[in-house]
Amino acid sequence: MNEQFIYFTKNWGKKFVMYPLPGRDEINMIISRFYFLVYEVDAPLLVRFDRFKLKYAKHANEKLQQFASIDDKIRFDSNEYSHYSHDHSEKNIKKRFDNKTSELLNFHADLRNHKFTNKELVRPEFDTYFMRMAELSSSRSNCMRTGNGAIIVKDKRIVSTGYNGTPFGLGNCNEGICPRCLNFSVDVSDDLDKCLCLHAVESAILEAGRPRTLGTTLFTTKFPCQLCIKMVI
Questions:
Q1: Which of 4, 38, 72, 218 has its CA 20 to 30 A from that of 28?
Q2: Residue 15 above 80 pLDDT?
Q3: Same domain assignment for residues 222 and 181
């Protein structure tokens, strides 16, 4: 089996179909490969129950509760597949195909229209890469109203990053330092001059300084406010 997976690794750009689904050790070996992608096909419980009864005549009178117990065991309790469902699916799944329709032609059309060969699925282009970095930066925000992130890039290198929150040395917005952000009767775009928080774009520019930002590209998760636009210009 190891020789087979070495062959898969060397020929990762080709298409393979593995049937039947291999066991636990083989699946772990596949998942360890960097370019391995997971596509999940799922359908609601009742839809799967109806299909199950149609497919297997001897189970035509099966009760939903019995089917649900068997289904849960297969999906979550099995020694062969539980590790796959819990440990790997959420972080590796690139797309979920909804197979709830009774028309298989619609499902097949969805499969045909999806670009499985999209290179960005395994190695993102730089624009996608930096936007993801901006989104990651926004997760550091301590603002009670909204989270935003910004990245300044030059020659495909990050010059500075920023996220919205109170200035360095002050308490955090989520600790009640900014009265404006705690006042939810004020619209998120109003009274910005009364807000103690720095904006993500503002923070990234201040971090870098004007000389280092000349000729750069800005990636931001939200459109800049008027103040930040003036700073960008």
A1: 72
A2: no
A3: yes
Co-location of 210 and 113 in the same domain: no
Task: Give the global pTM.
Answer: 0.64
Residues 163-178 have pLDDT tens digits of 998 888 888 888 888 8
